[in-house]
Amino acid sequence: MKTAELCRKHGISDGTFYSWKAKYDGMTVSEAAVADVGRREPAAEEAAGGVDAGRVRAEGSVEKRLTRSVDHYAAVEKLMADHGLSEPRACRLTGVNRSAWQYEPLRGKDDAVRERMREIANGAVGSAVGS
User: Using one digit for the tens of pLDDT, what is the confidence trace for 4-57?
Assistant: First the structure.
């Protein structure tokens, strides 16, 4: 199989192929694993919108970059559920601050005040608006 076909099949560039060949040529799988300790998992990067997010692949599909917090949080949940990653690792891969991920709003204590403010803002209380 030609190099170009192999690269197209796996969605990598020729440059990446030759970089990997120079780095890993002649290594066994266990030696390559030791060389990659601390690197991100490719599946995790893909799920998190990692290094090649937004790049057009050989098949023509486009992966979108995560831009909203909701998307980042969904990616954290997906990494934890599908790939079995820990919360700190999933947050690190997606760039989510762990304290923001763990935050739970304190609702319920001021519901009466919020409802009253909505009434005033919507003009339900005629004397309060414009006085």
Answer: 888 888 888 888 888 888 887 877 777 777 666 556 556 655 655 555 555 555
User: Distance of CA 60 to CAs 16, 45, 55, 71, 97, Å?
Assistant: 18, 19, 9, 23, 33
Rg (CA), the chain: 24
Distance between CA atoms of residues 12 and 21, nearest Å? 13
Taken as a whole, the chain contains a residue count of 131
Cα separation of the two ends of the chain: 81
This prediction's pTM: 0.36
Span 111-115, mean pLDDT? 86
Q: Taking a C-beta distance cutoff of 8 angstroms, is the pair 47, 79 a contact? A: yes
Domain spans of the chain? Answer: 1-39, 40-105
Distance CA 125, CA 122 (A): 8
